[in-house]
Amino acid sequence: MKPIIYQLFPRTFTNYNETRKPNGTKEENGCGKFAEITPKALKAIYNLGATHVWYTGVIRHATAENNTPSIVKGKAGSPYAITDYFDVDPDLATEENKRMEEFEALVRRTHKQGLKVIIDFVPNHVAREYKSSCKPKGISDLGEDDHPEWAFSPLNNFYYLPGERFEPTFDIGDYNEFPAKVTGNDCFTSHPSRDDWYETIKLNYGVFYQGGGEKQFTPVPSTWFKMKDILNFWAQKGIDAFRVDMAEMVPIEFWQWVIPFTRNRFPEIEFIGEVYNPLAYRDFINAGFNYLYDKVGMYDYLRGVTTKAWAAEGITRHWQTVDDIQDHMLYFLENHDEQRIASGFFCGRGSNAEPAMIVAATLGRNPVLIWAGQEVGEKGMDVEGFSGMDGRTTIFDYWGVKALQAWTNNGLFDGGKLNSEQKELRTFYQRLLTIAREHSAIHSGLMYDLEYAQGEGFDRHEQYAYLRKSDAELLLIVVNFDDKEKEIKVNIPDDAFRYLQQDPLPQAKAENLLTGKLLTSISPKGKDIKQITFVPNQPITIILPAWKGAIYRITSV
What we know:
The protein is of the alpha/beta class. Helices cover 24% and strands 20% of the residues. It is built from 14 helices and 26 strands. It starts with a strand and ends with a strand.
């Protein structure tokens, strides 16, 4: 089955507080809870078309309330500045002393609804004040056995700057760190700036960066064993997959070692890598990663087509670049790192990305991800606090997300406060993602790109078309990136019939699965007939509105 991943941030997903005070506290602005992600909420996510839920920000991280505020980003803190790998965020619990039990109950509820669970694994860095109080017996803490007087040793979990005090280029009050530890974004200085990941410290996997990148992996570095224990701990909780933060900042040799270890005990566990270097993709897949971000390829290009920077025909080049590993590439148009589609930084309206979303969801067998709020056109144009108006939904502040609150409707999860445009957009996502999940031509069929075979009646700058085929069905997918309605003539070449092993259909019908309407053609007498000719080199005429697409199921009459 094609994975359809729904990413949600519990802190904001079920926060119904509408105060929205910039830099507001948890008490002022509110915070979502594990317990509020109810069976009704999960059923709605499943009915949207999802197969997986990525719970972002589960593991305990630094907050301004529980850590030194000057080395925490925002009041709520970054979920990627972990303070205890063996604990969950107390903010997300109804009863703080039962927070792990509440998370485990959420995992069970999610599975009961037929959804798989993904959480983050953050292997490259931890919060500056990392200290585990929940680690299992027999496991020593990160840094507990380090020799801070050594700048580097494979026996150490951190990198140190002996003789130097941690003194960023901004005021950190009375926070004291001596010797300074190296900052998470490979910043080997005791004076990181605000643009650095100053709230984190880099984990040491045995690479001597100060010595030219020499790798010291024999004996196996201490950090490797400790991170293996962390993966096993969470896998035992019933986690189905890990989204691995900044996977390429950790040496590939670690993944080649730890993934087989983990799968030996949990054979079905999956790994999704945040990797941005296309030259490294195949190494990570060979190391055992199931899926990798296709950010610098398909995401960047679809965004460029949607914002009129590039021509639609270039989509072909981007899938061809990773054709041999396409099933492993994760497509998306939004996630917590990227700007919202409906923001003023992207295209200002969620529905304008419908053509790009159709491509992302149906071009291949590979997984697709959406970020909670995307399906209802969340703009992300708030000034929340640490996260200013940047077109993103904050992960650093306590906040109520307007479009999400309109859909969650105080726990009813019925869209009761959505406006008509938001309802229409969510209906589009529900139909599209359900098609991607349930139709065999999408989740397990072949794809034939039609772009090269189009003639004068097809604008390859603004339109894109392809076929998907399985033993059970044949689909023709056409999208229009133009801001005007267009009459599109789609040609199906001889080669498509041969490649797909498809017989010509002189009499056929074409049903648009997104609308339920049949494609009509004009008879010799000038009347519309609900029948088309699906044969080589006889173009099919389709009229598509601006910023829309169609998924036609072709069947013989």
